[in-house]
């Protein structure tokens, strides 16, 4: 058996036989599922809470405008004092009191209207109310500048058509975000994998240094072979762990949904939204028609392309980062010394995730999204977020993918070469923590 | 071919620091070769070059007459000074892994390991983890792993550090047996007295340079200063001592009146032994007359001092 495969085998077995690894592997899916169920439950509770707003309307306007909706219902006070209205709103525990005073003119009435609440109201509460006022004011002003009632109806009609169209766009946009979210999921997976298993590689190198076995080993094999074997062996252990997680978590989830009878599709959408803090626009389709459209769009994501490119970016990205982790492990004597070196690695990863969630979600083909999907330290994550839109027309231009992969490969070769040099020198250096300047010197040894 | 290993003008720098400066060595086949020198002299760097862990900036190393190549690794066994084992791995499994890395097949390695484990009386450790063993126990396993693939050249860097005297002796005996079977052995140490008795050849390294090498016997001959330790039995020892003190350079003298025993150290002019002995034998009976041969350590100190004086 050749030496590299011997090393890979040992690293793999050393990892998967480790007690904490075994415990993590089998405990994590349970924790993960528990989290998702909790989130789903909380979301459901949160959503089912209905708001009640008291309306004390003393004017002649708005008599037909406050209609109970899915989220909000209205209670009307009549012929009482404002103070009594306030008191009863408070004592009944309503979300707030809207007071519309007596007035001869709509402008005046709206100017003097007030919304009273115990705590400062949020926009989801105020927006519908403001919309009602704006609607009335618009109608009134249009009539004032000479638009006849008939004309207004046509305008209003077309306006309503616009709203419908706008909602359609909204849906489509939501789907774009869902797509980016799928890509983001892949990107996030890469980041997690790099941080977790890169850390494992690093600790494993440190262990070899502190146990002083390193020199025994590298008198038999080349340092580069050892480094490569370690990275591959650890990542195979990681892939094993991830596979167990995915399979067991989906099994568990399935069983739980089956038992509890929670609507599967609803939950997955909700949990997706909750775990994505950047998404402010709700992509929730309102009707079954939209739901079908939505599912159709979802199926149109180029899964094969996405998964094959995921593998490419995953392998290259992981190798780049884990060889840096290996070099760090070689440079230091114990884990506490690693902090100053790890930060510069985590930084581009975090940047990639945040840029991904901010820029790519809002505009997958904007300049920032493009730049970060070409830059090799962020491209494995950011490019995957852009990819669900497909390649070519309407998606990521082919040249960008080619350039990003070429850059990634060039960086990969360069970084692995540099890391191997630092590794080769570092594993035989005991004692003090090196500075960046010393690391630079090592490159020339 | 006489030499198992030849180093020619090997130079190695780490940044501005010179680790080896133009060092040349010839290590004869089937002997024990002592690579001596204080810490930081460059011993470990030289050994790492031989093991192809690092590479010289200039100069060349020949193994068995060939330029050093990766496949020679399988013919070299190396016990580093900084040595250890994977803590959480089982003894047998780990030994098998290290043996396979040296190119042994699994079954071959297994067989040889069982043999050595029995020989050093550690057969029942096979399934124990390294972290359960003492340091001395782990050293035995490291020794076995080093010699298991029956290399032509064995390199031991500070081999006896960490061993208790009993185990150190066991290992020493095994090393001598290996040498008798035809293995060439390099010992590297800064504690020169510890391997002096074993080495036929030595090289002294100091400040990245080789300052002395050759057959230990020859070196000692070269470095002996005609100093003798003399034990006499005679009456009136003090008078006799005064008498010869005028003519010879005598130090460390003691006279025991009760035993009539006179001991002293004398520095003789070269080739004057015969004359001196005749003077002694005329007056006293000679109990002992031993030339004090300098230790490697003394030779080392003297060489360094000479060198510094010249510079």
Give a quick set of tags describing it.
A: about 450 residues, mainly alpha, D-Maltodextrin-Binding Protein, domain 2, four-stranded mixed β-sheet, about 5% strand, B: about 300 residues, alpha/beta, Alpha-Beta Plaits, 2 domains, six-stranded mixed β-sheet, 10 helices, 14 strands
Reading off the top of the CATH hierarchy, the class of the largest domain in chain B is best stated as Alpha Beta
Rg of chain A computed from alpha carbons, rounded to a whole number of angstroms = 30 Å
Shape of chain A: elongated
Protein chains sharing the most extensive interface:
A-B, 27 and 27 residues
The main sheet of chain B comes to: 6 strands, mixed
Strand content of chain B: 25-35%
Q: Quote the average pLDDT of chain A.
A: 78
Topology of chain A as a string of helices (H) and strands (E): HHEEHEHEHHHHHHHHHHHH
What percentage of residues of chain B falls in helices of 4 or more residues?
A: 25-40%
- Find the CATH topology of the largest domain in chain B: Rossmann fold
This entry's quaternary arrangement is heterodimer
In CATH, the architecture of the largest domain in chain B is 3-Layer(aba) Sandwich
Content of β-strand of chain A: under 5%
Q: Distance between the terminal alpha carbons of chain B, to the nearest Å?
A: 37 Å
Strand element count of chain B? 14
Question: H/E order of the elements of chain B?
Answer: EEEHEEEHHHEHEHEEHEHEEHEH
Determine the N-to-C terminus distance of chain A.
32 Å
Number of distinct helices of chain A: 16
């Amino acid at each position: 058996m050749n030496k590299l495969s011997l090393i890979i085998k040992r690293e793999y077995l050393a990892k998967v036989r480790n007690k904490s690894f075994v415990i993590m592997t089998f405990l994590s899916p349970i924790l993960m599922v528990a989290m998702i169920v909790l989130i789903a439950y909380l979301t459901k509770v949160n959503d089912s809470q209905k708001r009640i707003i008291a309306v004390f309307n003393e004017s002649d306007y708005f008599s037909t405008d406050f209609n109970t909706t899915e989220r909000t219902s209205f209670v009307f006070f009549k012929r009482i004092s404002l103070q009594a209205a306030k008191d009863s709103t408070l004592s009944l525990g309503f979300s707030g009191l809207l007071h519309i005073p007596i007035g001869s003119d709509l402008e005046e009435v709206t100017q003097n209207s007030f919304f009273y609440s115990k705590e400062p109201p949020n926009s989801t509460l105020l927006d519908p109310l403001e919309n009602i006022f704006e609607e009335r004011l618009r109608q009134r002003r249009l009539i004032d500048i000479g638009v006849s009632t008939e004309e207004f109806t046509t305008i209003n009609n077309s306006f309503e058509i616009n709203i419908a169209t706008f909602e359609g766009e909204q849906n489509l946009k939501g789907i774009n975000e869902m797509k980016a979210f799928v890509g983001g999921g892949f990107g996030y997976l890469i980041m997690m994998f790099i941080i977790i298993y890169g850390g494992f590689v690093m600790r494993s190198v440190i262990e070899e240094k502190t146990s002083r076995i390193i020199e025994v080993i590298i008198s038999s094999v080349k340092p580069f072979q050892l480094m490569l074997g370690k990275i591959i062996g650890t990542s195979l252990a990681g892939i094993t762990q991830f596979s167990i997680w995915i399979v067991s978590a989906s099994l568990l989830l399935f069983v739980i949904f089956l038992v509890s009878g929670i609507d599967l599709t609803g939950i997955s959408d909700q949990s997706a939204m909750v775990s994505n803090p950047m998404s402010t626009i709700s992509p929730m389709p309102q009707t079954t028609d939209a739901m079908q459209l939505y599912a159709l769009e979802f199926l149109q994501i180029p899964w094969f392309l996405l998964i094959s490119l995921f593998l490419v970016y995953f392998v290259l990205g992981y190798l780049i980062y884990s060889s840096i982790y290996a070099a760090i492990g070689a440079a230091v004597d114990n884990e506490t010394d690693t902090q100053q070196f790890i930060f510069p690695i985590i930084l581009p990863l975090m940047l990639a995730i945040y840029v991904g969630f901010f820029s790519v979600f809002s505009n997958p083909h904007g300049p920032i999204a493009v730049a970060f999907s070409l830059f090799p330290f962020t491209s494995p994550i950011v490019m995957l977020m852009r990819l669900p839109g497909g390649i070519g027309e309407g998606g990521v231009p082919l040249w960008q993918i080619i350039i990003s992969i070429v850059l990634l490969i060039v960086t990969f070769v360069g970084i692995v070469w540099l890391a191997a040099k630092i590794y080769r020198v570092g594993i035989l250096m005991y004692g003090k923590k090196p500075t960046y300047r010393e690391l630079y010197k090592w490159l020339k040894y | 071919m006489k030499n198992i290993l030849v180093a020619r003008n090997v130079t190695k720098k780490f940044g501005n620091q010179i680790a080896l400066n133009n060092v040349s060595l010839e290590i004869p086949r089937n002997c024990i070769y002592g690579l001596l020198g204080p810490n930081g002299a460059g011993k470990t760097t030289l050994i790492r070059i031989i093991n192809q862990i690092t590479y010289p900036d200039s100069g060349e190393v020949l193994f068995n007459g060939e330029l050093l190549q990766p496949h020679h690794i399988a013919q070299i066994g190396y016990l580093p000074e900084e040595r250890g084992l994977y803590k959480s791995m089982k003894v047998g499994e780990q030994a098998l892994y290290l043996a396979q890395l040296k190119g042994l097949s699994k079954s071959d390695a297994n067989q040889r390991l069982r043999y050595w484990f029995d020989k050093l009386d550690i057969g029942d450790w096979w399934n124990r983890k390294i972290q359960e063993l003492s340091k001395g126990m782990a050293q035995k396993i490291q020794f076995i792993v080093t010699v298991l693939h029956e290399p032509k050249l064995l390199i031991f860097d500070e081999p006896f550090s960490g061993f208790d005297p009993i185990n150190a002796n066991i290992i020493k005996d095994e090393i001598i047996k290996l040498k008798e079977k035809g293995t060439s052995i390099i010992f590297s140490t800064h504690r020169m007295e510890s391997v002096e008795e074993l080495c036929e050849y030595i090289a002294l390294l100091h400040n990245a340079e080789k300052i002395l090498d050759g057959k230990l016997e020859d070196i000692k001959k070269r470095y002996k200063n005609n100093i003798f330790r003399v034990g006499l039995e005679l009456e009136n020892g003090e008078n006799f001592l005064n008498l010869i003190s005028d003519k010879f350079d005598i130090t460390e003298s003691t006279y025991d009146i009760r035993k009539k025993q006179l001991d002293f150290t004398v520095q003789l002019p070269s080739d004057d032994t015969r004359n001196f002995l005749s003077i002694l034998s005329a007056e006293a009976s000679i109990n002992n007359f031993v030339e004090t041969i300098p230790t490697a350590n003394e030779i080392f100190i003297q060489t360094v001092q000479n060198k510094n004086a010249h510079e």
